[in-house]
Design goal:
Blueprint lengths: L4 E6 L7 E2 H7 L4 H9 L3 E3 L2 E2 L5 E2 L4 E6 L18 E4 L3 E6 L16 H9 L7 E2 L8 E7 L4 H11 L3 E9 L14 E3 L3 E3 L7 E3 L8 E9 L4 E8 L6 H8 L27 E9 L6 E5 L8
Parallel strand pairs: 10-17
Antiparallel strand pairs: 1-6, 2-5, 3-4, 3-6, 7-8, 8-10, 9-10, 11-16, 11-17, 12-15, 13-14, 15-16, 17-18
GO molecular function: catalytic activity, acting on RNA; pseudouridine synthase activity; RNA binding
Protein name: RNA pseudouridylate synthase
Family: Belongs to the pseudouridine synthase RluA family.
């Protein structure tokens, strides 16, 4: 398996000069890797090593060589099915994951997940997919996948520092006596902590002792006849089932959600047919660059 990776990027002409150390910090490179780049003289400016306290000037070319990069992730068995590619560059690929499909396998014998599909796509290029985040099995939409192990901690740090933004669409049922603000296009915040539901290991619940969680939503439209609404949502955290739990807690459960919507018959509790929740847009910075990318599902695929 490949363990050495080379990245070349231009320091933007519109930025003021920064030290090599500051540039590595901007790129969210882990301190251990910064150390190796320095002692191995593997960070070059215009083709020559420059110490970490030296300045990088606008327009100069940066080369970073990562050697002996190790990953604990195993390789994924190709499924034989190709994913729907929405965006791709040299380091990442964004796919449209269908509802009912897991993001990645939990067992070595699972071969029908989104990562297995991406393994099929990358195999001819002798590349393997790397997990950067996940979507619930019943949720559809954009899933960002790394093409090499270098980008994984960089993208994970974007999630932690909230420089990566994820946006969702959801159709919800309007339960009687719901506690939601249904004013159109007004931003609303849910900040209740989420923990394990002790009565059902599949579920999460609002718990004072749970992990902090923040969800923002606004109402795009209301169907009074069907007693449903279309919501736009964004996440500041990424807890398991976060959107589903938060919306259900204010009386707006996601339509067709077998775990959290009381309108869904108990006979469908094991359903994997999908819920009306869609990750429709991603905003992130390309690894080891100053370029931001916004990836959006084609409008004809959006929840209406």
């Amino acid at each position: 398996m490949k363990t050495s990776y080379k990245f070349v990027t231009q320091y933007p002409k519109e930025l003021e000069q920064k030290s090599v150390r500051e540039v590595m910090q901007d790129f969210l490179i882990p301190k251990k890797w910064q150390h190796y780049l320095r002692i191995n003289r593997d960070i070059l400016v215009n083709g020559h090593y420059r110490s970490v306290n030296s300045m990088v000037n606008p327009g100069e070319l940066l080369t970073l060589n990562f050697n002996a990069v190790e990953s604990t992730q195993h390789e994924y068995t190709p499924s034989g099915h190709l994913p729907e590619i929405i965006y791709e560059d040299e380091d990442v690929v964004v796919i449209n994951k269908p509802h009912g499909q897991k993001s990645h396998p939990n067992r070595l014998d699972e071969t029908n997940t989104a990562l297995n599909d991406v393994a099929t796509y990358l195999a001819p290029m002798e590349q393997t997919p790397y997990v950067t985040h996940r979507l619930d099995m019943l949720t559809s939409g954009l899933l960002l996948i790394g093409k090499n192990p270098v980008v994984v901690p960089l993208l994970n740090r974007q999630l932690v520092q909230k420089t990566m933004q994820r946006f969702y669409l959801a159709r919800v049922n309007l339960l009687p006596n719901n506690k939601a603000n249904l004013t159109l296009n007004k931003s609303n915040y849910i900040e209740t902590p989420i923990g394990q539901d002790i009565s059902d290991k599949r579920k999460r619940a609002i718990k004072e002792t749970g992990l902090s969680a923040q969800t923002t939503y606004r109402v795009l439209k209301i169907d009074a006849k069907q007693q449903t609404a279309l919501l736009h949502l964004s996440l500041a955290t990424g807890r398991t089932h976060q959107i589903r739990v938060h919306l259900a807690s204010i009386g707006l459960p996601v339509c067709r959600d077998p775990l959290y919507n009381p309108l869904v018959p108990p006979t469908l509790a094991q359903s994997t047919s999908g819920i009306e929740l869609q990750a429709y847009q991603l905003h992130f910075r390309k690894p080891l660059s100053y370029e931001f990318v916004t990836v959006t599902l084609p409008k004809q695929l959006w929840l209406k």
